[in-house]
Amino acid sequence: MEHALEVRNVSLRFGGVRALSEVSFAVNDGELFSIIGPNGAGKTSIVNCISGRYRPTEGQLFYHGRDITALKPNARAPLGIGRTFQNLALFHHMSVLDNIMVGRHHLLKNNFFTGALYWLGARREELEHRRKVEEIIDFLDLQSVRKATAGTLSYGLRKRVELARAMALEPKLILLDEPMAGMNFEEKEDMARYIVDLNEEFGMTVVMIEHDMGVVMDISNRVVVLDFGRKIAEGDPATVLADPHVKRAYLGEEDEVLVDPDDAPDHPSVAERVA
Amino acid sequence: MANASLIPAGDFRTSYAADTTIFPTKTSRNTAILGVILIAFAPLVLTGYWLSVLIQIGIFGIAALGLNILVGFTGQISIGHAAFFLLGAYTSAYLNNNLPIPVFFTIPIAGVITALVGLVFGVPAARLKGLYLVIATLAAQYILIDFFSRAEWFSGGSVPASANPFSLFGYTLRGDKSYFYVVLAYLLVSYLLVTNLMRTRDGRALVAVRDHYLSAEIMGINLTKYRTLSFGLAAFFAGIAGALYAHYQLVVSNEGFGIERSILFLAMIIIGGIGSISGTLMGTAFVVLLPEAMEWISMELKGGTIDRALQLNNNLTFLREIAIGLIIIAFLVFEPDGLAHRWRQIKAYWKLYPFSH
Ligand SMILES: Nc1ncnc2c1ncn2[C@@H]1O[C@H](COP(=O)(O)OP(=O)(O)O)[C@@H](O)[C@H]1O
Ligand SMILES: [Mg+2]
Fold this sequence. Notes:
A: 2 domains; 6-stranded mixed beta sheet; B: ABC transporter involved in vitamin B12 uptake, BtuC; two-stranded antiparallel sheet; globular; P-loop_NTPase (chain A); ABC transporter ATP-binding protein (chain A); nucleotide-binding (chain A)
C-alpha cells in the first residue's frame, strides 16, 4: 500500500545541534497519526521538514510516493499539504475572513489584472470561494468573529482560525503542531472533535503533535515517539505508552512532565484581548 | 472604541456579493458619489491657482497610491519612487514626441513601461530586507536619474524635455480646466483598481507576505514573486502619475525629483496611513497643502516680530522642509496609523454621539 507520507532516514542538524537523527516512519492514507515526545525532541522540526520550512540534512520525504525533500514550501500547498503552527502565525492585521481566504490562494485563478478589474471571472470566482470559506466558518463556529481583525482575538480563537485557514486549502494531509496547547478544557474538547471530523468527515490524513496524553490516546490511530531527535517507539497508542523506553524517556517521574513550562505558548496579555 | 463597527444596526446583508462591495453601506456609497459630483464642479468655481493645487493632489495621489501598495500592503520600502515617476514622465513625452501616438495612449503605455522597469529593479530588491533594501532602492533612484541626465536622446539631457498637451487623434485639450477632468478620471480609476486588487487573491497575498511571510509561503504564496510584483505595481502607478504630470507641466526635467521627492511620497503615505487606500489621498492632500498653509501663515505674519526674527520670506522653503520633517516624526510617534485611522475614529464618535463615552 502506498503511504500518504513516508519519512525516510531524516536527519537535521543546526550547527552542532542534532535536531533529528535518522528518523523514519510512515503515515497511512486516512490515518490520524500523532507525534509525541518531550520538549526539544524534534517534533516541530519534523513537521517543518514535511512542510518545507527546513530542508533535511540527510534523508528523504515522500508524499504519496513522490519525493518532496527539496520541494519549495509554496509548492506543497497545491499538492495538498497544509499545516498550523505551534506559535500562532496568523496574518494579524487581516480579518478572519481574509485570513481564511488566503488559504484558498492556490485554488484561485484570478490575478492582479483580473482582480483589479474585479471582472473577467474574478468576481464570480471570489464569491464562489467565499461560499466555501463560509462553510468552514460554520463548521468551526467562527461566525461571530468573521469580520474581526485576527490579531484582536483570544488565544483559543486564533488557534481555531489557524485551523480554518489550513482547512481552506483543502489539504489531503494536514499537520497540526500542538493544536490544543494553552487551551482550557472546553476549548480542548471542541478542538479534539474538530480534528476527528477533519479525519473522518473531510477524509484528511492528520499528523498531530500533541502533549495532552488523554487526547492522543483517545483519537490517534497510531503514534510515533521522539526523544533527543531519535525515534524511540512507534505503534498503536496503548502499546506505545506501555513501552519501557517511552516510560523511561519521559513518562517516568511525573504525570504532567509533558507540559514543560519552557514550551508554554505565550498567552495574549489581558490588554491585547481587550484591545 | 477604535474597532466600533460603522455599519448601522439592522443593515443585514443577504448575499456574499452584497457583503463584498467596496462601500459597506448605501449611505457611504451615496456620499462618495456625491463627493465626486461636487469635485467635478471644481473647475467652475475655483480660481486657476486652487485648481492647479487640486490637479497636483490628484497626480501625486496616484503615485503615492502605488507606493502604498509596496510599503503599506507588502511591507517593503522604497526611497526611489520619484525616479519612477520621472521615468513615466520622460517615457510618455518621448513616445508622443517621436512616434505618432496621441497622449491619450502614451500615458498608459508609459505606465506599463515604468512597471516593467520597476519589475527589473524589483528582482534583486525582493531578495533584500531592511537596510539593504533601502540601499537598493536608493541605487534605483540614482541609476535612473543618472540615466536621464546622460541619455540626451531620451530626456534631452541638460535641457528639459518638452511634452505636448493631452491629445487624442488630432483633438487637443488645452488648459487646466479640461486637464482637471483627465486627472480626476485617472485618480478614480486608479483608486478603484487598487481597492479591487485588495479584495481579491493577489492583493490578499501581498498583505499576507507583509503580515507573516513564513505562513504565507505555507499557504502556497511565492514570496519572491509577490515582492517583485509589488515593485512593478508601485512603479506602474508612479509611471502613470509621472506621465500625467509631464502633459500637465508640458516640460520634464530632473529638477525637483531627487531623493527628497521620494521621501515626500513616503511622507504622504505615513501621514495618510500606511496600508490605507483612502488615507493615501488624505496624506497627499496634506503634504501638497502644507506649503500653501505655511505661505499663508507667513503672509499673515508679514512685518511682525516673528517675521523679522526668522526672515520668513527668505527661509520659506527651508522652513517648509523642517515642518514636513517634524510632521512626519509627529505622525510616526503620535499617530502611526495616520489620518485615515483618526478619521474613522471621528466618524465612529459622531455616529454614537451623544453616547460616545
Ligand atoms: N531554527 C533552529 N535553529 C537552531 N536550532 C533549532 C532550530 N529549530 C529547532 N532547533 C533545535 O532542535 C531541537 C528540536 O526542536 P523542536 O523540533 O522545536 O522540538 P519540539 O517541537 O519537539 O519541542 C531543539 O534542540 C531546538 O533547539
Ligand atoms: Mg515544538
